[in-house]
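Morning!

This is the sequence you dropped in the shared folder:
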Amino acid sequence: MHNRHVLHVMASEWKKTRKTPVQLVMMLLVPVLSVLFLSWGMDYILGISSHYKAAVFFADDKVELAEEVLADEYPYFSFRNGDKEDAKDLIYEGKIDTALIVGEEEIRLIYDSSLLTSSAALKDSSDIAADLSMLLEGKEYYDGMQLFYPQEELIDLSTPMDKLQKHIDQLAGVVGMIIFLMMASNAMTISARSITGEKERQTFDTLVLCPAPLRKILLGKMLMMMAEIFLSGVMGVLAAIAGMAIWSRKNFATICEQAGQDGLWILVLLLLLLAVTMAVTAIFTFIGSAFSQTKKASLFSSAGMVVVSVAAMLPTFLTTDLVKYIPMANWTPSILDICRHDIHFVPLLVALLISAALLCISMILSTGLWERTSE
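The structure's back. Tokens below.
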């Protein structure tokens, strides 16, 4: 009988969600768009460090000579006729990152420090300026000076896995935080509608008269909240996977090669999302139960959002293995374990138990608040 009451409450809450299709669509669409945009933005920023566009402008007929001698050594530079104004226009339009203006007595480097200019672009600009200084003295002089310089060879000892780990370190924490904040935002909205709203709409007295105990009613609301939050988290994770497949194909191929050997990574992601779902539900259920007005609950919900974001970014500040046992903080280390195909379930289960304990404590406290209101 009690289980029937819980299911009835869940069905009632789902009907309320279906009556607001725009809210349901936004709940699922916002995490997807946010994660896709963030994945693109982070990939673009990280790509700037290795790829850029630059140009060298000449006021005379030295373009062909410079292109013939330096084009192979500096593949990201183009050589053209023009002046400082031409260079500024191209930089402001975003077509190039840096420009060298070759004058009669000086070589001027132009860039916009307010933009994300690659440090490699600035270094290469300095190097090509030195080469141009010798080349403009004459081709024979340039060839002669090159004999005094030792040959250079760049050898990258990092493996694809090393590069992937660096990429995940830079990206996973931010993407995870965005997914969790979207889940928390949905939890805040659902809590305001389903829990605080009962008091604000003055329908709480009707709940008191129901044959089902208040704790069963609250449990049904929490379970439905968890289902909706979990679904939004799944959509966010799918968007993150799609974003990597689109904009970081090499890294995605490496992950597929390592983690794609079995389907355990799916279970890991589901456990991570379940732990986050329970923790977020616990936080916002308690906040929603403590207030009778949505405005007041929203103020404290902001504090809950801060807790979620700080927990997600803990691995950035803590290098201890303790973060693997903390819900939300264990996202980045768990993703790295998936990439290395070195999955450990004990920390995940401990984090899951911690989230379950938080959910039980929130349930007890929230039930007490509801019973106090009914009195």
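Headline: The radius of gyration is 29 Å.

More detail when I'm at my desk.
O.
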